[in-house]
Amino acid sequence: MNISRIQTIVDKEWAEVFKNKLVLFTVGFLPLILTLLPLGILYFTSRTTPSGGDLADLPPSFKAVCGDIEPAECLQVYLLNQFLLLFMMMPLIIPVSIAAYSIVGEKTTRSLEPLLATPISTLELLTAKGLAAAIPAIVASWGGFAIFLVGVPLVGGSLTVLRQVLAPTWLLAVLVIGPLMAVMAVIFAIMVSSRVSDPRVAEQTSAVIIVPLLAVLFAQLAGVIVLNVSFMLIAILVLAAVDVALVYLGARLFQREVILTRWK
Amino acid sequence: MIHTEGLTKVFGTGDQAITAVDRLTLDVAEGEVFGFLGPNGAGKTTTVRMLTALIGPTAGVARINGLVVGKDDAAIRQQVGLLTETPGMYDRLSAEKNLTLYARLYGVSDVAGQVRKYLTLLGLWERRQDEAGSFSKGMRQKLALARALLHEPRLLFLDEPTSGLDPEAAKLVRDFIAELKADGRTIFMCTHNLDEADRLCDRVAIFKTRLITVDAPANIRQRLYGRRVVVHLGQAAGDLAAGVVALPFVKAAEAVDNKLVVTLDHPEADNPALVRWLVEQGAAIQFVGELRHSLEDVYLRLIDEQQ
Questions:
Q1: Which chain B residues are within 8 Å of A119, Cβ to Cβ?
Q2: Would B197 disulfide with which of A57, A213, B35, B306, CB 3.0-4.6 Å?
Q3: What is the ipTM for the molecules in this complex?
Q4: Interchain contact, B55 vs A261, CB within 8 Å
Q5: Inter-residue contact B90 to A109 (CB < 8 Å)
Q6: How far apart are CA B233 and CA B259, in angstroms?
Q7: Which of A19, A114, A120 sits opposite B88 (nearest CB)?
């Protein structure tokens, strides 16, 4: 693997793809909105929820997670936990949009053949394309999370709530599951992009990958599951297996001959 | 420089199998400009893709500078330059950034210097900051040519280098190819422009899935039509044709109005004797010239025969 060539392609991808306003919006504003939304909710709940009360309205499994936290704070933690999935969603949405444009763009401008005629290996090219899409997604998600952490005490979140947000469940979700999801989304988007010739179609089709996460969101809202450390560890194992399978499939799909003769 | 033996490419399998290139055997020497001619779908681009190590052959061998396609692919790609059928530039990037990207991918040591050199040589330096998407077709083609040359390859593959260009842009590209030829580079050129091939190429191959013929254009012409001299006379030529055909160095002769069309093996040597004989017969010779068949005539005849 030649790092310089990978760096060159990543630079090119960013120089090209960030000239697209839709991609810029997705990478820049979407994480900001998804970060400000829970902060806004926290701001209002911290002002409207009286201390005391009981946990009767919360799902029973969640009461166990709250432990001896004060009910008002537990409610805040409960609400914020619903937004944990937004931080997991960011690394899924952002790279799909970048990868869709980066691959379909190569097809529409017919720039793949001269690119493949250089000494770059297919693996280097794939790695560069993947990194170019995944890095902004991970940076944006982590950046959003950093803003969120700074914002929690500023909008009225207690130290207990902040401690919950810095607990292993959240850290595993943002720091480990996020990148794993980004890898999954990138490879999936690249595979979809190889079959279509319109970036919008590629983006919309690739968005299907969000469906399993939405299922998790609804299951959590319904109280069927609780996002705790055990759930996160299982999710990490499943995602790692899916990523390995997708990388294997991607490597089979991305042979020069396939790219040149079938990507039309 | 290029050697192929039984080079074959089949796409698909079973009933769906399509043979794009069938047992191609040819050699291209160093410094040669080689024209690869054939109709659309003949397998020219597939051949170029195999020779530039973009796709592997199904059977046979191809060697580029001694390197084997399918085995030394990265080294082959490092040593050859390719001008693809469509320029395929990154439209949102400037001309300079497009070339810088490729110079870095080829591992060029003086990236800025090489980019400047070829942008200047091809008359694009003043427009270096403009997005490639704003360029005319001719300018994009020149930019693509610059891209193919950044790493100073001694072997260049040009796929339809003047296709779709206006006459002025086509001439600029042609002149540049002539300069590359003078520089001693080996050029393998696919083209539909037969006049261009005739002017630029030392040898041409006429190809339609299989190799039909390969030689210098003049040799192919001679083989197919012989060399013919046309003598314009001040009188009807009919009476003289029978006498001319009896001359020992004449292969054939025919009269067309007041013209005599004479087939000779060596017009340079035999024309003086022919003219002398005609004058002795009292013929009023107005002028003498060689009747040349265009490469297009040759090409169409060979393709037609193959069909």
A1: 74-75, 77-78, 105-107
A2: B35
A3: 0.82
A4: yes
A5: yes
A6: 6
A7: A114
Where in the sequence is the domain holding A17, given as residue range(s)? 3-262
CA distance, residue A190 to nearest chain B CA (Å)? 19
Considering CB atoms only, which of B56, B92, B106 is closest to A118?
Answer: B106
Contact B82 A15 (CB under 8 A): no
Q: Do domains B2-215 and B225-298 have the same CATH topology?
A: no
- The helix or strand, by DSSP H or E, that contains position B139, with its residue range, turns out to be helix B137-149
- Cβ contacts of B148 on chain A, cutoff 8 Å: 114
Q: Does A15 touch chain B (CB under 8 A)?
A: yes
Coil/strand/helix, residue A262: helix
CATH architecture of B2-215: 3-Layer(aba) Sandwich (3.40)
Question: Cβ contacts (< 8 Å) between B77 and chain A: which residues?
Answer: 117-119
Nearest Cα to B157, choosing from B122, B194, B192, B185?
B185
Distance CA B204, CA A12 (A): 39
Of A5, A19, A260, nearest to B55 by CB-CB distance is A260
| Tens-digit pLDDT profile for residues B58-103 | 999 999 999 999 999 999 999 999 999 888 999 989 999 999 999 9
pTM listed for this prediction:
0.81
Q: Which residues of A touch B56 (CB under 8 A)?
A: 257
Cα–Cα distance between B93 and B132 in angstroms, integer? 6
| Residues facing residue B262 across a β-bridge | B229, B253
More confident residue, B169 or A11: A11
For the segment(s) B225-298, the CATH number from 3.40.50.2300, 3.30.70.980, 3.40.109.10, 3.40.1570.10 is 3.30.70.980
The pLDDT value given to residue A56:
62
Q: Provide the shortest C-alpha distance from residue A67 to chain B (in Å).
A: 55
Domain count for chain A: 1
The structure tokens 């990868």 sit at A99
Alpha helical stretches, state H, A49-116: 60-66, 71-109, 112-116
The residue extents of the domains of chain B are 2-215, 225-298
Q: Mean pLDDT over all residues of chain B?
A: 89
Of A86-95, B146-155, B255-264, which one has max mean pLDDT?
Answer: B146-155
**Among A80-89, A221-230, B179-188, the range of highest mean pLDDT:** B179-188
B14-32 mean pLDDT: 91
